[in-house]
Design a protein that fits this description.
By secondary structure, the chain is α+β, with helices and mostly antiparallel strands. It is about 15% helix and about 30% strand. The chain contains two helices and six strands, in the order E-E-H-H-E-E-E-E. Strands 3-4-5-6 form a four-stranded antiparallel sheet. Strands 1-2 form a two-stranded antiparallel sheet. The longest helix has 13 residues.
Length: about 120
């Protein structure tokens, strides 16, 4: 669907399904032009943090009026046993109530919709 960039590194947002990618974001009611910009900013300016299993979590502090953090979960590896989808790319994106690295921020589910 679309590529986001962190320097020369392209991170794809693929169509996916209801559990990952663009269709997942639409299914969860998150997709909008503003949400697209937040993904772009999080990847461009965020700090990559490795998560066990080879996935990366890019994050940034949300811009005012928000006081939460915005995160993008990305899989730089092949999608399961489907090597033709490589890298899988963006799995999900959401606002977090707590700073990245806190125990609550590592939860797989967002606490509330992105602001």
């Amino acid at each position: 669907m679309k590529n986001y960039y962190q320097g020369p590194l392209a991170i794809p947002l693929r169509c996916g399904s209801n559990s990952w990618g663009y269709r997942h974001l639409v299914h969860r009611g998150r997709w909008s032009a503003d949400f697209d910009k937040k993904i772009s900013h999080a990847i461009w300016r965020g700090t990559p943090v490795q998560i066990p299993g080879g996935r990366w979590h890019y994050y940034m502090e949300a811009m005012p009026p928000c006081s939460r953090y915005f995160g993008v979960l990305d899989n730089p590896n092949a999608y399961g046993r489907t090597p033709r989808i490589n890298p899988q790319g963006i799995i999900t994106a959401y606002s977090m109530d707590d700073a990245p690295g806190s125990s609550r921020a590592s939860s797989a589910e967002p606490r509330r919709p992105a602001c």
